[in-house]
Amino acid sequence: MTHKITPSTVLLLTLAPMMWAGNAIVGRSVNAMVPPVTLNLLRWAIAMLILLPLASWIFRRNSPFWSNWRRFSLLGLLGVGLYNTLQYLALQTSSPINVTLVAASMPVWMLLIGTLFFGVRVSFKQGVGAVLSIVGVLIVLSRGELRQLLALRLVAGDIFMIIAAIVWSFYSWLLTLPKDPEEIRSNWAAFLLAQVAFGVAWSCMFTAGEWALGDLHIDWGWPLIAALIFVAIGPAIIALRCWGIGVQRVGPTVAGFFSNLTPLFAALMSSAFLGEMPHFYHGIAFILIVGGIVVSSRR
Fold first, then answer.
1. What does the pLDDT read at residue 272?
2. pTM of the complete model beyond 0.70
3. How far apart, in whole angstroms, are the C-alpha atoms of residue 243 and residue 180?
């Protein structure tokens, strides 16, 4: 892992947030067609079907996949099963702009998780940057009103997204650990499939709980089918692949800066497709969040 940012790395780490912004838009637009946890299961089940012809060999009896199943199970739980489920749950009560802006606190959680669990030291500039980013997130959570901030009025979607950001931070740091067999790690399809296979298994359990707790339904039709194809290929396979390479090249903290492009793309897409115009406080929050990451990333 190096910290040199090349043009190809910039491209990879820009494609991922663009896809994630699209995922938030689509997740919001189909929330009346399919339950959120079920949406996550369908998305990753399709992704697994796409990956199987490329890397089904990992399931052979002598494959190193089986001797490393605990690690792949954990990666699948965090990156596939939990993070995306929490995001779709957040979109039930929050707008794509709000969800992606709260997710833009990711670099702050990257620093905290890295310090507390992976032995990474936080510099003074990184601390100042973290404070700026947290202030930006608080502005989003309060909808730009001091009264709401003092009253700590959070909608469920905000809380879900904060938890999701923490989950993704753990996932990103785990990606940097050299614990994967080279045979699988060197093959992008195999590495994704190893995670997705367990992620789908976790998602099946979560979906079973969702249907057991409520009277739910799915409105099948071409709009939902098209949405599933997009979220399975773009935000799932392409974005996860791009993010994985970027994290391996520059580390979670530097890569986390690019995640702040997500709310920018989400704001543009929300305006174009959902008619949800950004508010003034969204702009202030975005400036603070990005400014915080710029400060924290300086040497």
1. 67
2. yes
3. 17
